[in-house]
Sequence to fold (568 residues):
Amino acid sequence: MGEQRSSSPRGKAPGRFRPDRLQGLMILFVFLSALFFCRLVQVQIVKAPEYREEAALSRTADIDLPARRGTIYDRNGNMLATSVDATTVYANPKEVKDVARAASALADTLGGDIASYEELLRKDTTFVYLKRKADTEDAAALEEKGLSGIYFIDDAKRVYPYGKVAGQVLGFVNVDGEGVSGLELYYDDILKGTPGRLVVQRGASGMPIPGGTEIDEPAQDGQDIVISIDVDMQAYLEDRLAQGVHEIGGDDGGAVLMDASTGDVLAIASTPYFDPADPSNSEVGSDSLKPVTQAYEPGSIFKTVSMTAMLEAGSVSPDTTVFAPAGLAADEYVITDAHERGDMTMTARYVMQDSSNVGISLMVQDHLGFRPLYDKVVSYGLNDATGIDYPGEASGYLAPNVETWSQILKYNVTFGQGISVTPLQMTRFYGALINGGVAVTPHLLLSKPQTGETMEYESEKIIENDAAIEPMVSMLETVVEEGTGRDAAIEGYRVAGKTGTAEYVDEDTGLYAKNSYNLDFVGVLPDATVPLVCFVGVNEVPYERNTATVFKDIMTEAINRYRVVQNG
Fold:
């Protein structure tokens, strides 16, 4: 018999693993274990803070707690802007059981539109503001209705006890309590304080956790400030200015009253006025204090600058004469005076008294020169901002390349055309004439009561030659006594000032407007117990008018209010 053969296939016996396959499974197991371990490390260690934060965010709502904003006081301690108790109303829409009823109740107590409230209450969220800074009485009435999902937070809101009075000076704040304009903006860092944070904890369903509301960071109240404005004087100035704009038939106007010795701005305004409690219903641009923020061509009040420069140079006196023809040719133009006259010889005093454009042009040309005039404009600070503590102050401007000035521009600059300044800059300059040639930085902030800090401001002697001051003031007194400024005279007081009539550029044509002018007057009280300086301007008015009467009334009110006595 032959050899018996096995019927099993060749190879290894059934049920046995090869060593290389076992090794592969072991490697795969180790790899998966390592991968799982790395993921565990990432979740529990690396990503744990992030996941904890996400989890916390999913069950909490953070609400800013505004700080109580500092109070703004006038120089006499009257509250001009302050914060009062208010209530912010919010909701968790997921808890509101009857949206229609809740929306109706909100509209009835807080005001507003039912549909708008319904839209808020149907949002897929756990937190919506319904009304911020609501009146506490209205919020209390709403709370008594016991509406589900409606909550209340103690808050504060800004109020302005004097309404529109000094509204442009004060400015306003937004719903977040941040300064938007005026001193509310300029001193926002002082007034606003530091907001706090309220944390509202909620369960998985969005329902508040009992006792889960806590103050994470308390708010820190802002500081109070005292400003130079006298609110009663401010109210009078605003009333008289508005009346003057109406009587004169102008488009708008501005006025400034300042103590020349301190730089304290006692009252300042421009029409139309601004209501800080209702900014949305105020006229566009009314929140801007135009005597500070808008430069303009000043007209003949600038002749005082030209004459002072010549007096400082010692090249003229009030009796210096000039031959002034009826018309002065300049390039393709002819310069004339406001009133028709023939050729005549006039003194420097008469040039100021009758406000002669031809006379001042020729005197500067003959006795000073246009480059020295430009240098004086710069040294008087009329090409720079005054530095007042108010946002958006404009600077004056006069082109520095005198050598390229046309002849008409050279003449025009001497009487306040072709140059731009702000009313506040001119107020500062005139104030120096009764303060020994020293200009003090105009300002609004006086002190910070909580810190006891009293502000100090820089002063600068801008009229270096004292010998120029007395004759300049004397000529300005003649303007009021015998010249174009007679309406500014105040019985029993020395008043020195200058009228101004300036052309302005029509925005539609790009050319000087015809038969309409910007009028102004700026005057001072020389040798008085309080050295007051006042500017009044009204824009786009018929030529036959002037602003001297408005000046007189404002200055008379100030004399009575501050018991100003004429020395000597």
Observations:
- The first helix runs from residue 19 to 46.
- DSSP finds 18 helices and 21 strands in the chain.
